[in-house]
Amino acid sequence: MSSEYSDDVKIKVFGDKLESQALQKGCEEDIEKHCRRCIGYPTMRTMNKLKKYGMYTLFFMFIFVVVFQFSEDVRQPAYPVFKRSETNHTNRMIIVVTPTYKRMTRIADMLRMANTLSHVKDLHWIVIEDGNKTIPAVQDILDRTGLPYTYQAHKTALGYPRRGWYQRTMALKLIRSNTSQILGQDHQEGVVYFGDDDNSYDIRLFTDYIRNVKTLGIWAVGLVGGTVVEAPKVVDGKVTAFNVKWNPKRRFAVDMAGFAVNLKVVLNSDAVFGTSCKRGGGAPETCLLEDMGLEREDIEPFGYEKTKDREIFVWHTKTSTPNIVQSKKNQTKPVPPPDTFGYFVEV
Ligand code: UGA
Ligand code: MN
């Protein structure tokens, strides 16, 4: 029909009376094209279309967001993740206490630990800096885990050995004074674990062992105490002794990495890491557990069930300080710190 009229005629025709007739005849498209050419704006019809389809789009986006939000647990990642899903019937909060201090390898150590812990649900990480202030690079690592965490600075007080004792004491006080904030709204129970920043942790240590500790859980630790593995000796499900080289007569002959205590045990006592621990021959673990009123009968051993190929879920590794090559010139002058080329390294 358009070929029969010049543009002027069409303007006149649509402008005057024929728009409604055209609509009735199903000629909307002509009106549409014509009006867009005349006035350059979308017509009412276009606006209505936009409104209609816009509403559909919004509706489907809303459904997508809702489904996505609630399907997290069933969604499978497209790549393999070094992780086991938890089948526990408890959501006990795992409270990990980590003393840390400035050294060349600290960021690397904390990064490894953060990568491991970030796979564990329902975990609050308490990190205590042995220093006067918290360090932004450490805080940044903690932020990126997505975990709830507390990061405070408490420099080792006079009389305490510089081995994390004072920092753990401060953490115990914090746990006792801020229990509900640390547990969070969805948790009534918790387990406290002292995880140093330089060990190597299997995710299953948290999901399969620590989460299930009802009073005092104990398990094997690799590369510790001058031997390849320290472990509780278990007979009929009970710990009767400890397979350790160093000081086996201790009531709890276990490294810090080899036990966790239920939060109720911590809250029912005021035990802390004192300035000395004679019963442990210098090691604080047995003193703390004895001061908490625990006995050998309270121990729940983990990971001993198999008769061979038992797995170790925590290793007492140590990151060695790298040998920094210094220039041989001007050896009489004090050695300047190595150049980091603008990168952050704690030297
Ligand atoms: C071993 C045990 O694994 C520790 O749990 C125990 O506290 C320590 O012995 C001890 O003798 O008391 P080890 O590997 O020799 O640990 O010690 P580090 O790993 O160097 O230190 C333990 C924790 O304290 C670490 O998280 C570390 O970052 C921290 N630390 C160490 C400080 O906060 N300040 C320091 O000056 C040194
Ligand atoms: Mn260590």
From TrEMBL:
Membrane-traversing stretches: 53-71
Lineage: Eukaryota, Metazoa, Ecdysozoa, Nematoda, Chromadorea
UniProt EC number: 2.4.1.135
UniProt topology in membrane: Single-pass type II membrane protein
Protein's organism: Caenorhabditis nigoni
Keywords on record: Glycoprotein, Golgi apparatus, Manganese, Membrane, Metal-binding, Signal-anchor, Transferase, Transmembrane, Transmembrane helix
Binding site for Mn(2+): D198
Protein family: Belongs to the glycosyltransferase 43 family.
Highest taxon listed in the record's lineage: Eukaryota
Protein name per its UniProtKB record: Galactosylgalactosylxylosylprotein 3-beta-glucuronosyltransferase
Cofactor requirement: Mn(2+)
